[in-house]
Design brief:
heterodimer; A: 586 residues; alpha/beta; eleven-stranded mixed beta sheet; B: 182 residues; alpha+beta; six-stranded antiparallel beta sheet; three-stranded antiparallel beta sheet; 34% helix; elongated
């Protein structure tokens, strides 16, 4: 509801008061007055003695720097006994010097929790008494916190005026006024302020040292990265066989991804806003954890000659897989699952595949003396990160099961050919034809010999179908198994890449920095005195933290839906179920 | 502060506490029946008897330790995530409406809705299994459409008071909501 100024309700005046100023000495209240919401945000208390001219000058300077509309809101008195007459007159004089509409006067008696407030208006617009609400807030927490509005609010953030979030304005005001909090009580200036940092500016030596050290480190890192990226982009590596291999290996993608991350971190530009800062921090922590896990893995791997053991078991495992495949083919060449196959075709296909396996085993045995050395050097790359090690594992699996992939391609192509032939000859059988020009099925009159040969071929293909289909089925299942294993590894790599660990740890340790909203608690009341509330920060839930700050990755998600996958499998098209972002559609 | 005893939709007794802090600030707390000792003991005993039966059949002592583990974890999860002790509604005239649920383990879940987003507080009917029940809800304003409702937020979802209790809360809320419109 938009509140027009002509319709006056019981005007409720809200004052947001920092809890650190509750014990301050008497003085002036400075802060921001938000007329649309009838609320005042107090940022600090200026103590006596002061020269009004200097106060005004200081405020206009701060206003220029912070772009926050700062002014003197009223007076604050913290006295031992009941109100003195002289003090009243003095405070009234102050209200004429710093004219502000409305002038807020807060009184507190020492050792009493109850406050009293008066408002002075030059032009009292309503005959009813104004109600007063005092909201205490923790200045440091509100300054450091970042409000995450829900979807409702983000839509309304475009609207100006009354629809804008009230609390968003309060948070905004406090966080923009950092300059005001730089003066502490022990400075020798003309103005003495009390705010959350008035006891002295706090800082951490470690943080300052890191800040100083980060500049040269960033420059060095940028230089190294530019060297590496120029090497990668050089012409030598762009020739056809090499570029094809690079695009297929997932290790190279992961390395490229991490290189991008390093470039983001080591860039010289400061983060513009909070989101970019969190993203940089998340990338940094993710890289750190990744490398730590990688080095842990490396130390485990290189102890007790595990690499040698791994190399020793690799050849027998490859042999075992080959032997299993040979047994499978012998089974298919016989009477698999009680089905009777076409003997001739069976033998041809079986022997073809057996010969392939024989070739593969010979190559593996040829490479066996070098396996241990290769593994040793490849294992060193685990120090670049656990994700790189996992990508290498996935690539090794792909290389070791290359023959399964080949068999799948052969079987699929054969089956696909057969299915297309069958469908075309089936149309011929019925007297129809595929019209390429109009992309539809038309009737066609065939000659007798065309029909004769067509029907003959159709019969042959139909009766040979079960054999081919069985080979296709077996190899597709094997290929799917390998794809699923690779997919799981990639999912794990993706998880490590995209988890925003810094945000989760921040939510755990400094939960006030990620705020979903606020919560209010009603403090002790006394009749006739204004309502006192304590405003605390309501932190974001872990689920929303992960969702908001997820790092973008080259996500591997299934390219096809289930129905299109099944259709492709039935027809015999080659399937590549995991799609990489940025890959061209085949 | 006033207190009244009412009934919930399921038949259990609930207590409603009303507090008025100032002319435009009121708080309503509905307290649900507490966790009974006899239902807790009944559940624990049945789980352990079943585990002992399995142990006698299989002679594997892992079953017993698994049963103890499950009971403990189940109890902790129930107290911390499921059993709501008290639900309260704090309505502050010009600031907004705050809903708090306190769980049996002491955890508190708070949501605050600003007054500019609140369109109205109404009592709605709903079909719940085989019954028609009444529930109190807050209608949120759609920022794009002044007469539209973007979301309905139900209140007192786990204590589910009956209509007489809801009418009390509704009347009080309407008095405060009227103040912002006059």
């Amino acid at each position: 509801q938009v509140l027009h100024s002509s319709r006056i309700a019981i005007m409720v005046l809200k004052v947001f008061f920092p809890s650190c100023c509750a014990t301050a000495e008497s003085g002036l209240l400075i802060g921001r007055w938000i007329p649309e919401q009838n609320s005042a945000v107090v940022l600090a208390v200026v103590h006596f003695p002061f020269i009004p001219g200097q106060v005004k000058q200081y405020l206009s300077e701060v206003q220029r720097v912070t772009q926050v509309n700062m002014c003197v809101l009223g007076s604050w008195s913290n006295t031992k006994q009941e109100k003195e007459e002289g003090l009243d007159k003095f405070l009234e004089d102050l209200s004429t010097i710093f004219s502000h509409e409305p002038w807020i006067q807060l009184n507190k008696e020492r050792d009493s929790k109850v406050w009293s407030c008066c408002i002075f208006k030059k032009y009292p617009s309503s005959p009813k008494e104004d109600e007063f609400i005092l909201v205490y807030y923790d200045q440091r927490k509100v300054m450091l916190s970042q409000l995450h509005p829900t979807d409702n609010l983000t839509a309304s953030a475009d609207h100006k005026g009354n629809d804008a979030s009230k609390l968003g304005a309060v948070f905004d005001t406090v966080s923009k006024s950092k300059v005001l909090f730089m003066i502490d009580r022990y400075d020798d200036g003309p103005i003495k302020l009390t705010h959350w940092q008035s006891e002295g500016v706090e800082a951490s030596i470690i943080v300052e040292l890191l800040k100083q050290a980060s500049v040269p480190v960033c420059m060095l890192l940028t230089f190294l990265l530019s060297l590496v990226s120029s090497v990668c982009k050089s012409r030598v590596l762009k020739f056809w066989p090499l570029s094809f291999i690079w695009s297929k290996l997932s290790t190279c993608e992961q390395l490229g991804h991490r290189l991008e991350h390093l470039q983001i971190i080591s860039s010289n530009r400061k983060a513009q806003n909070q989101t970019q800062l969190m993203r940089k921090a998340n990338i940094f922590v993710s890289l750190l954890i990744d490398m730590a896990l990688g080095i842990l893995l490396m130390s485990w791997l290189y102890r007790e000659n595990r690499i040698g053991q791994l190399a020793d078991t690799l050849i027998p495992v490859a042999d075992h897989i080959a032997k299993e495949l040979q047994d499978l083919l012998q089974w298919l060449m016989g009477v698999p699952a009680g089905l009777k196959m076409n003997w001739a075709l069976d033998q041809v296909l079986g022997r073809f595949f057996l010969y392939h396996i024989h070739l593969w085993i010979s190559y593996i045995h040829l490479m066996s003396p070098f396996i241990e050395m290769i593994l040793w050097y490849v294992g060193l790359s685990a120090c670049l990160g656990l994700t790189v090690a996992l990508s290498i594992l996935s690539d090794i699996i792909a290389l070791l099961t290359f023959h399964i992939y080949c068999f799948y391609v052969y079987g699929a192509r054969l089956y696909c050919l057969k299915i297309y032939g069958l469908s075309s000859l089936w149309r011929l059988f019925r007297g129809k034809k595929w019209n390429v020009l109009r992309q539809r099925v038309d009737s066609c009159s065939y000659d007798l010999d065309q029909l004769f040969i067509g029907t003959l071929l159709f019969t042959i293909l139909l009766f040979l179908l079960p054999t081919t289909a069985l080979y296709y089925l077996v190899f597709t299942l094997l290929r799917l198994l390998v794809v699923v294993v690779q997919g799981l590894i990639h999912l794990l790599v993706d998880l490590i890449d995209s988890l925003p660990l810094y945000s989760v740890i921040l939510r755990l340790c400094r939960s006030y920095r990620l705020a979903a909203g606020v919560k209010f608690r009603v403090l002790e009341q006394k009749a006739g005195k204004p309502l006192r509330l304590l405003m605390q920060i309501n932190p974001l839930s872990y689920g929303s933290v992960v969702q908001t700050y997820r790092l973008p990755t080259y996500a591997c998600y299934p390219k096809d839906s289930w129905s299109s996958l099944c259709k492709k499998l039935f027809v015999g098209e080659l399937i590549y179920p995991w799609k990489h972002k940025g890959e061209k559609q085949d | 502060m006033e207190e009244g005893v009412y009934r919930a939709v399921s038949g259990g007794r609930i207590a409603l506490q009303r507090r008025q802090y100032s002319a435009s600030c009121r708080e309503f707390s509905v307290r649900c029946p507490r966790l009974q000792l006899r239902s807790l003991s009944a559940a624990t005993c049945s789980v352990w008897l079943a585990a002992y039966g399995l142990f006698v059949l299989s002679q594997n002592s892992m079953v017993l330790s698994a049963a103890i583990f499950i009971t403990l974890i189940g109890l902790i999860v129930y107290l911390h995530f499921v059993k709501i002790d008290q639900e309260s509604l704090l309505i502050i005239g010009s600031l907004g409406i705050q809903m708090t649920s306190s769980y049996a383990s002491g955890k508190e879940n708070t949501t605050f809705i600003e007054m500019s987003q609140v369109k109205d507080v109404v009592i709605n009917e709903a079909i719940y299994m085989q019954k028609v029940i009444y529930y109190l809800c807050i209608l949120l304003q759609d920022p794009r459409e002044p007469h539209g409702v973007s979301e309905v937020v139900p209140l007192f979802q786990s204590s589910k008071p009956r209509l007489d209790c809801l009418v009390e809360v509704y009347r009080s809320c309407q008095e405060i909501l009227e103040q912002r419109k006059t």
